[in-house]
Structure formats: C-alpha cells, structure tokens
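Per-record layout

source: Christiangramia forsetii
name: DUF2851 domain-containing protein
length: 427
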Amino acid sequence: MKEDFLYHLWKFQKYDSEDLKTSEKDYLKIFKPGIQNELSGPDFFNAKIQIGDQLWAGNVEIHIKSSDWYLHRHEIDSNYDNVILHVVWEHDEEIYRRDNSIIPTLVLKDKVDKGLQESYENLLEKDHLKLNCENDFKNFSDFQMEHWLERLFFERLERKTKFILDLLAKTGNNWEAVLFTVLSRSFGSKVNADAFMIMAQSLDFKVVQKLSNNRYSLEALFLGQAKLIKGEDQYSLELQKEYDYLKHKFSLKNEFLPSPEFFRLRPDNFPSIRLAQLAALYSEKKNIFHELMQAKNITEIKDLFDLQISEYWKSHYNFGKTHTTKNKKLTSAFIDIIIINCIVPIKHCYFQFIGEENEQSIQDLIQSIKTEKNSVVNLYNELRPKTATTAMHSQALLQLNSEYCTSNKCLQCELGASLLRKSPKYI
C-alpha cells in the first residue's frame, strides 16, 4: 500500500466516519479534511476537526505507519508543530510533537470498505501489460472520458504557457521574438527541436527583422548560424560569404551551438530545407505575429504558411547534390504540428496576457485538427477504439500518459480514482 491511497481516503472521506475515535479513545469528528499540499510540509493544510469537546484548526499528516513520523524526522521539523491529527493505516507507536505533547492519531485500517481496498489493489498493486486500468479503460463513459481529456488538454497547455511566459520574460516582453523562438523549435520537429530553438535564441530578433526584406540574407543567417553551410557549390560559397559578413556585422557567435541532425530524417525534413522554409516565412510575412493572433480559424492560419522556397532549394536537399525540381511547400500535416505545438500555445498565452477570454476559440481550433499519430495515441486507441479523434484528444493523451499513467498517479487521475468508487456505500 502507498500513501497516495490514504491521501485519497482522507481527501474524499472514503471511510466509515461513524463513531470515530482517536487512538487515545477520544471522540473525533471531521468538519473539513483540509487542502492537500503538493509541496514539502504537512500533507493537508487548514483542516477543521473536533476531538472530545475541543475544536481544532490546523494541519494533518498522513503515513502508512505512525512510526513513519520519526522515520521522516518530523519530530525535529518546526513545519509540523501545527499538526492536529496524524492519520495512519497502522498505529505502531505513539507520536509526540517537539514540545513532547502527544499527537492524536486516527487509524483507518478497520474503517475502509474491503471492496474499496480490493479495487485499489487491483489498480495499483497487480502487474499489468499496458496500463493499470487496461481492463476497465473501454468501460468509462463517453461523457467521463471527454470531460477528463478536455481537462488534460488545458493542463498540458498551461505547462506550455509557463514555458512561453519564461521566454517572454527573457526577451523583455517581445512577443515577436518569442514567436520566432517557439516557431523555430517547431520547424525543427522532434529530432532538431532543441538545436533550432538554441539557434533562434542565439540571435537578436532585431537582426531577423532588419534582414526580413532579403530572403537570401535570412537563409545565410539561419543556415550559417546552424553551421550547415558546406562549400560544395557556387551557391554555398556565396552563402558562406554572406554569413561571414553578417557574422562580423552583428557580432554573431555559433561556435558552441549544437549542429542539427540529418540522420534517419526524410529529405523533406532535412534541417537545411526547414531553415530555408523558415527564411521564406520571415521574408514573405513581415507581420507574422499580428496576423497569427488575428487569424480566426485553421484555414486563415494555414494560408499564412503557404510559402515558396527559394529556387536553389527546389532542386536541392543539401548543398551540392541536385535532384528533379520540386516545389517544397509546407505540407498540411506539418502545419498542423506547428499549430499544435506553437500557434495554439502562443495564442492562448497571448490572450491571457492581455486579459481576453479565448478558451473556446482555442478549443475550436485544436478540435479542427486531426489526431496526431504516435505510439502513445495508438496505445489508448487499442484499448478503447476512437479514444482520440482530434488533436485535442491526442494532446490530452500525451499528458495522461506522461503525468499520470507512467507515474502510477492513478488516484490523481479522474478515471483511475473513479474505479475506487465501485462500492455503493462510498459513492
């Protein structure tokens, strides 16, 4: 058994609360269990209880065994001086505060429905092939699933919002510069996301703005800063010369920047092509941030990414090697990924920043994109067909998998916690 189970029992009062007594045989009544603390210190703050004739307000600490109090050295920690109740599964030792006063203890072992305990053991203490709730996943109601996935999507979005706000602080509230950084990261896809982002952050965005009327110079800037220019043909020699000039003019440094990878990438995803497309975007769209913030739907957003790559790259995937001319436009699927990972988080964050409500428009936008295809989404769709039908669902499932399922946080998951409510007595 883990303490998470006891947190769940205490938080939702899932135990027999009639005729409660402390280990000292004093009558006990719970008015408020308190607010769960996710940081260091007592497990629940601001609880309200009555012991005998005395009303108490304070904190509650929870352990499997009461002796864990000493194991965790709480007796010498002033943060625990205001603990008014010690909730345990098994009482094996009396516990005292630093002033030697005894701490009342509530033992839950004989107060919990056996069916509830069995449900917990089936969920978290037995071996499973894929998920702890794999045998029940298909049985959750459509309403419950949709409600939880929506919450998970916005939970994941808030994490991305924090990342964007951190970038915003570093750029002195320059939203254009933030967009350039996050957009560059998206253009790098999974393999080169970090390398592209670091490259973008190594540049003063004012330099990008100054060169926005010259696609050739932007190509030299991006490819040169990423250390991708190789002197194998006339164009690369000229581009290298242009980059050397820009490097000197703007005091650029790239010696310690990571080099993007080509290994196992399809040619259309080569970093040379993606950076050339990024240069095309910033040379063709002078007010890209403003236009993206004003775009009302996915069609308007995708129109902004309808780009023409420079002539050289229509017949090259890398320097010096030609192929049949091909107009390498951004595919609809690639733009979807940019919208999911860049545009949606920035729009959400920006409108929060200026104090405008945009939750519904963000939800409409993400639901207009088809679900992503990856191993995580496939896992849940195998257990429950059509769990994910839109990008909102696939983003939510990524959050569910990384923050709950793989960490065994079933009792903090709406779906997992619901499996412990099977006993009618405790619904």
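summary: Residues 423-427 have pLDDT under 50 and may be disordered. Strands lie at 28-32, 35-36, 44-51, 54-65, 83-90, 105-107, 316-318, 321-322.
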